[in-house]
Amino acid sequence: MASSFNLVIGSAKFIFAPIERCLNCKRNFDENMKILQKLLKELNTVKEVIELRLSAEIHGGTMQTEEVKNWLDDVQRIKTEIEIIEHKTKEKKFLSRAFLGKTVEEKVFELKAFLRKGKAFLGMVKSFKYIIVGGGVAAGYAAREFDRQGLKPGQLAIISKESVAPYERPTLSKGYLNPNPKAAARLPEFHVCVGSGGDRLLPDWYKEKGIQLILGTEIVKVNLALKTLVSAAGEIFKFQTLIIATGSTVIRLTDFKVEGADAKNIFYLRELEDADKLVESIKMKKHGKAVIIGGGYIGLEVAAAMRINDFDVTMVYPDPWCMPRLFTPTIAAFYESYYENKGIKIIKGTVSVGFNANANGEVKGVKLKDGRVLEADIVVVGVGARPLTALFKGQLEEDRGGIKTDGFFKTSMPGVYAVGDVASFPIKLYNETRRVEHVDHARKSAEHAVKAIKANETGKELEEYDYLPYFYSRIFELSWQFYGDNVGESLFFRDNNPLSPKPKFGSYWIKDGKVVGAFLEGGTPEENKAIAKVSRLNPPVENLDQLKKEGLSFASKF
Asked: Where's the Monodehydroascorbate reductase 3-like C-terminal domain (predicted)?
């Protein structure tokens, strides 16, 4: 009896053992398929990053191109083989998974090897929680705000094409060009955040805070979906949160193929390197002739600086008056007369169409559209700027020539923010979207974006950015400020005699019966605060004659 029972049990084991092995194989198969799919997902990410790097045409000896291409071909092969395995598993045949088990195990082993090789191709990928791309004013103010909000060492990196820590860019067209060596502004004197009355953030400050300054590094490729940046040297940077602070680049006459525009001693002023070259040329061409092309911010400020450097200065611009986007004809007339009294010649209503150069390739003359030729030892061009958004084309929504953001500077891509010149953002005061190219907005937008990032992480509430447009300039002994919007009817007050020892005058802009903007030359700090306040409050105006009579005292009432 016992022997018969053992015989039955033994027979049952013999019969069901293969089935049990099949069931175990199925369990192993399912586990291996999960591992396979996870590895494949990781492999795809590595593959996309490598393709991104190759598409940027970055080799420089860091990647063996032929070997990498072979690797990419093999990755495609193994992906096809895995697709076949996945297709067969869907046939739902009882033994199919068991028969495929060994193949899946082999593919898991093969995928792991491919991943190791792919990561070796990539080398070291630097990863940060936060990356700021662009190293101008906005980057410095954002770094300070990150520190204020709470930042762990190693979490933040600033990647900048320039070779120095963030600095106050407006200095380049002002104090940097001062002819007195003892009075001329030089780094580290004007590192951020001295422009707004804050402490100077020297390179050691970033080191102490654990913020990595990655200088002299140009980002040439961006894949926001992969949260990846690639530099011109082939370095790869990964981020969780990105702040785009790339700013603007100058419009160059060579962009329009202007004849001779590549001659030596034709300058543009945007970065420290540009200013250094201009300063060197000023020393070499002492008491020479300078032609300034453009009647905007850069044109006016550099023309004043060149005259202070004892150059014979001529300004050329196509508009009927200087700073036409902001100044009224009456305001512009004062500054043009003031400049002429300083010995600066102004030619309006024409443009440069070419340049003459000597045998050394140095500019000697500026050819105007009206036929005149101006002698020149130095030419400085200030005809505008373009926001640096090309890296993000097709990846982010755009508006008004910039990257579209909300009131917290969030872009259309989660985890990506844009600030400063590149951001097209809503101005609450006017219920419209604008892009503002000015240092004040660069500072404030950067700080607000960081506050928004931190508020999002902690769940705290934050008010939307509520910006009052602000512009200013300091030239010769003059200093003006503007707040608000220059739309509607303008009303000038006080005397704009350019021969006055201490000129003080201004203008209000009135729209729909309310003051929406104000300009003041020669104001005290208190008076400038008053015009800022009245521009935000938008008080009603019942009588324009009375407003003109009151002038600055009207703003002081609020």
From this structure: 468-555
